[in-house]
Amino acid sequence: MDPDIKSMPDEEVINLYYEKAVSGFKKSWFSISHNEKWYKYITELPEKESTAYLVCLLDDQVYNGGFNQYFINGYGQFIKESILAFKRIKAFKMADLIEKAFLAVNFNNDDYKLFRKKILAGKINELYNDDDSLNDYLEKLDNEYWEYPENIGNLLAECLRQ
Hints:
This protein is an all-alpha fold. 66% of the residues lie in helices and 0% in strands. It contains 8 helices and no strands. α3 crosses α4 (79-88). The longest helix is centred in the middle third of the chain and has 26 residues, at 47-72. It is globular, with a radius of gyration of 16 Å. InterPro entries: DMP19_C. Residues 44-161 form the DNA mimic protein DMP19 C-terminal domain.
């Protein structure tokens, strides 16, 4: 651990671990044929780096375009790991909310590996065909996410400092 990390501003602490997490990325991983390498890389990172990556990624996606965007852009392949990351930072209600989004999108109750493949291949049609019931529900969850009373950045930085 960096000896100055305790006195660093939250944003700098988060950026430090996030940058470590993405430093080993390969552009080729982001194609459908190589995304298993991306997944393996993220899931094998040290805990603090993976936590920073997963929390920042989900938070950025949901604030930018909602849970629908998170899943459509392929980041939903990390949904279970993201739920654990939110629990790790002690954002338990947020983890429950994210799990609700996962269960809504995985309405067929596919095993996780199959679910990830469907997300990456764009095979969950309801995300793309303006399924009102799913999109309305995800939008409701977006609103709950945005109204979350605790600052996720503060919780993440506090976790990373430990």
